[in-house]
Amino acid sequence: MLKVENLTFEVNEEGKKRCLVNHISFDVKDGEMLVITGPNGGGKSTLAKVLAGIEKANSGEIYLDDENITEYDIDHRANAGIGYAFQQPPRFKGMTVTRMLSLAAGKELTEEESCKLLSAVGLCSEDYLNRQLDGTLSGGEMKRIEIATVLAKSHKVSIFDEPEAGIDLWSFSMLIKRFEEIHREKKECLILISHQEKIINMADKIMVIEDGEVKKYGTKEDVFPTLFQQEKCQKCMTEGGKC
């Protein structure tokens, strides 16, 4: 279980403090999926980076299974069980895809294991195993490989920052199936930052962030009651029932 209490992150811009994450609190129980959505620039990605340990919070507490990990850096948080997929993955010239997947898994992967991971994100594995993570790969290809690195290892909490960005429809469908499998297995918490309705519909909880603050937080029915009612009515009409 991940528990966040009054998390705050500030930056200095031209001598003035700007609060990008403003006293945010929430929890994600084991096996739950939380989808974070809201306007661009509202603080969603910043929150994800603070959770992963890339940025250090100014105040607040982060607990993982009742262990206070607030002071942990990114390496210690990864070892504690937090996985993170960047919205814009970094490139590493000289690093092959196979090597990166093995590093992410924490063990030497067989070709078959690497192929399975790449296939899960819609990549033809044989064409990518020995490719370098450099400028020869497109943004969409880098994005899918980045997601595969998180899928390479079981985590207590997996954070995906806009996993749909730069991915074609076919690969996105495969990714949705993989998220559904993880969610169904109930082995880890999932936190997805997304604007995609298909991903939002999968959520146990939804959090809307705007201007660094939580504007809405709860179940899909609580956060998007109108949308949920429309879906319910549509299902009723399809199945010949009544709302």
Automatic annotation (TrEMBL):
It comes from Blautia segnis. The keyword ATP-binding applies. It comes from the Bacteria. GO terms for cellular component: plasma membrane. The keyword ATP-binding applies. One of its GO terms (molecular function) is ATP hydrolysis activity. InterPro entries: AAA+_ATPase (IPR003593), ABC_transporter-like_ATP-bd (IPR003439), ABC_transporter-like_CS (IPR017871), ABC_transpr_CbiO/EcfA_su (IPR015856), Molybdenum_import_ModC (IPR050334), P-loop_NTPase (IPR027417). This is ATP-binding cassette domain-containing protein.
